[in-house]
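User: Predict the structure for this protein chain, please.
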Amino acid sequence: MFGNRYWVNDTYYKQGGPVFFYDTGEGDAHPEVSVFLAEAYGPSAVMALTRRFGGLAVLFEHRFYGSSNEGSFPFSMDLTTGMAVDGYSAYKYLNTEQALQDTVYFASNFEPRGLDEHWRSWCDDACQKSKNILRYLGFLSTHSGYGISPILILSTSAPLKTCQQLFCALLENPSLPNLDAKASQVDMWTYYAQTERSMTRNCSADFTAVTNYIDSVLTNGTFQQILKLKREIYNATHIPFTLNVTEMSTFENSEIADSLLAPLDGYQNSGFALSTLGFCDVLETIDRRDLSTTDNGGTSPAIAPESGLAAAYNITLAYRSFLFALQKVAEPRPVPQLRQIDEMSWMWQSCSEYGFYARGNPLNRHTIVSRFQSLDYLQEQCNQAFPFLQTAAPNVAGPNKYGGWNMNPSNTMFTNGEFDPWRSVSPASTDTEIGAPGRRTVQDVPPCNVSPRKDELFGIVYRDQVHAPDLLLDTELGAEPFLAGVGLFGMALERWLDCFGK
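Assistant: Here is the predicted structure, written as structure tokens:
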């Protein structure tokens, strides 16, 4: 194991209490300490469980992540490029299997300072099992919070979005996962499909219509038409506005495609109402939000019916309003300067193992992503960033060997937001068109060391929620996910802890 950073809160620890282990995943863990261990912004799930069960909270940083000054870096990092100086010789150690071993090593060697002598004797016996358990471990985290007996793991969102927002307590060997299952995959066009499903129908319709219109011009337009369109989109989405005609002609179609996604940037963590809705309001009212219509409690007809501006009026009006909304509401995209270490580490994981290429799918009639956001374009981004890549495409077979969609471990609870973009590649996925088995999520707590039925999943899908809504009590998103998630997991843990004489 390399020198992973970790932080401990033992405020509520009682002799023999469980350990709640939270791997923060693809990012600098230090800012999370005040959020999750000190609860600076309100109650956190990991501390709520620690208080209830007299446990110890550990916040753990994933290898190759941290800040520009310090982090869990096993090799020297270039602060300008954000990459490991040694290239492939370093990055070959940033993979799923290596990250799992970090957790095993930690479980076997962790000695909290200042706690009673009972700790060591407890861990000597319990942690000895961890190496054997690893062989059976289903992929129980998306931020590499992988289960190790008898450490209780609280994890969410991360390198392998196969458990999305996971609360897990692995107290004994989980059952061997189905090795034929898939979850990590190169093509993840469903990422933005989740966003589209949660949008108002008129905004979704116009987003699709405008995207198709732009693709049509880029594919079939004259040089002048294409140049004009590129200038309009660039000026609406970038700062500074300094490109001349020659520079504008080199503005790639794939860059146009990426610019159109600006209104969706905050969706994953905030949801439609707190991110994309403002853009949609400007788009569908042509910025006449001051008018009293049926959309805002008035009696006058809405400017845009449910079918959208393009269908009710014409595509030109929809496109012009779309551009205006981009410029007025969407966050401008500055010209890239320095790349962050965390950004490059996650990109390596995606390019080498996980895939998750969020492309546009022209076969999806509701697509809100340009066809120029293609698999080829996304793979080329990987090839340019990492010319030493050893494979032509991500080796998704590596992480999928842990179970993928069909993983079925015991003593584990899975939670998802209904509209979380990552749900499509989690065991709770309902996207059967891409191969998900469509398992049913149930709240009946399974007995200790007993896996649920293969067509079921123990956990919760939070209605109308997105990514990780239960880790913190968020007043904007609502308290229900936090209370329901922590409550159900607490009930399950009361039952599962009996396996260890609790």
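The radius of gyration is 24 Å.
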